[in-house]
Each structure stands twice: as C-alpha cells, then as structure tokens.
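Reviewer 2 asked us to include a model.

Predict the structure of this chain.
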Amino acid sequence: MADHDLDGLLLTSPENIYYLIGLDYQGYFAFTMLIWPRAGKPSILTRRMEAHTISQQTPDIEHLGYADDEEPGAAAVAAMRKLGLASGRIGVDLSGMFLPAGTWDDLKTDLPGVEWVDTSRPQERHQFPIGLVDQLRLVKSPAELEYVRKAAAISDTAAQAAFDTAGVGVNEKEVAAAIYEALVLAGSDYPGFAPFVRSTETIYQEHSTWRDRLLRRGEKLFVELSGSSARYHAPLSRMGYLQIGDPGAEQAQAVAVSALEAVVASLRPGARTGDIYNQWQQVVDDGLGHSRLRRHHCGYSVGIGYPPSWVGGSTVLGIRRNGTNVVETGMVFHLFSWITDPDLGDHLLSDTAMVGETHAERLTTTPRSLLIE
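Predicted model (structure tokens):
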C-alpha cells in the first residue's frame, strides 16, 4: 500500500482474505469484505450471524457485522466511515467476482471523498490483470508448497479410485462417488471445483460433469479433479478408453504426453510464459504433422481456491501464446495438454508441477494408462 500510495485496501476475494487472515468458511456466498487500513488494524465485514466463526478463526480481527435485512452496500459504507476511510486513496480489486455491482455503486456514490484505485490493473512485473495480494500468492512459501504436495497426493489417490471404479456398465455417478469418497478419506477439504467426469458425448463440454448414464465399451472417459489441503489445490486429469481405443488413440496420447513433458522441461526460473507455450506448440505441430491445432493455453497458476474454481479467482496467470510473464521459483502450475485431431482423435491429460530452483517437479503422478478394463 505504501508503494502505491494507498491509504487502505478493500479485499473481497475469498482466496485473498484466507491468505491474509485465515478465514476459512463457506459464508463467502454472502458479501464478505476485508478492510485493511494502511495505518491501523484490519477489520472484516460479514453477515452478523458469522460472529462466532470470526471470533474463533480470526480473533485478532475486528468483526463488523450486518443484519440480513440491511443492504451490504450501506454496511460497507458505514464500516469505511467508522474506520476513518471515508476519504483518501483506497485500493479495490475490480476484477473479482465477489464484489456485487450494487455494493460497488453504493461505495462510489456514498463516499465521494474517496479516490478509488483499481488494484487489479497490471502491476510492474506482471503484464496481466492481477491484484496486489494476488501477486504475493503467485510465489509460494515452503510451508505452502507442502500443502500443495499433500493436495497432489490426494489427487493421485482420487484419480486412481476413479479409474479403478470405471468400467463397461458402470454409471458415471458411481465414478463420481468413488472420487468423492477417496478425496474425503484421503484428507481433502471440499475442492474448489466439483470433479469433472465426462464421457464421449460430453468430452468437449469443458466445465460440465457426470450424468446418470452407463459407460459403454469403446467410449472415452475423461476425469479431471483436485484434492485440497488447507485450501491449496493440485489438479490433474486423465483420459482413457473403455476396453478398446480409437485407431489413432495411441498416437494422439503420445503427442499429448510428449507436449506436456516439453512444458515441464521448459518450466524453469527465468523462462517466459510465451516461450513455454511455444515449446508445447512445436511438439504438437511436429507430432500431428500440421500446425492447425491451437489452444488458448497449456497451463495456468494454481494454489488457494474456493468455489467456483480451484484457480483462485477470476484472473489467473496462464501459459499462453505471446505471454511475457517471467516464471519464478516457488510458482505452481496446472499444466494441460489437449490434442484434438480429425485423423487421430482426442487425448487429454494434465498434471500439477512446482517450479524449483533450477527446474520444475511434476507433483501428480497418476499412471497415464490408455485403456480402462
């Protein structure tokens, strides 16, 4: 805040609030705002009924509660006035999904003395929209990385349970149930995304999941999931065929795997995201024998996540074509390789990798089996 000449900062992202003060609850569906003055102690604004949760989880943070018949915008304005922030330069992240438009209108209208600063605009080293706290979260501490490792182990356990359960005549619901049981028993928190379980008809519906239907011989089964340890995620995905694969299945898988390994090999401190994407693209072009396949990314940063995602907010550092962001030690990425080709068919897989001092380490290690018996 000092570097950006801010007198205070308003935070509504669950991931940022949890990162700073440790508030871990599902009450984020209702307006929750952390008010952090540059001088003085922070305060948290939530529904009044959350007082017990706040007192137990964040006892050193002042709780400002609003009643259910009170407009959150009016409560936010009153809280700002109480804390002496009715004027000055106040930072607010306008890129997030947890600041309702009506509440933001109330803040702007009823606090005319405030100069609002959108802290989601590109900040120095980062050439994509990201907030001040989100910047800090990109590079994980050793303690955070241990949580990511635990999440990766849980992800592997749940993925193995999914494919152990899947088979001809098995309902997609049974696969989903096996995943949830494995996640919980392995020690996972509830994940930011529900696990994705898709078969041939829904394989391209990137954010849909299981249906009430039986799996058939020869069709595809795609599973993408993540365990969560202390809200830190480590996603992975795998795709296989029920007993028999398409004619080009083995080659499509080989291209996808080789391209993903090229990304892991090029993911090191100092590398630029655009150059890493180019490594993926080159392997794909060579493997397919043409340059027609293009994807919007081959990976993105991951860490703390709350529903509705495990990426930790509406802005995320992606490994994209022409990206100029520099990779740093301690970053964690979900690396994705999706091959779609009219001749070979499809293959999808992904893993979570951590950037070390000299190279990346793949944390999820579920076998990449092509056939599901």
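The chain has nine helices and 16 strands. The CA atoms of residues 340 and 347 lie 7 Å apart. We have added this to the supplementary material.
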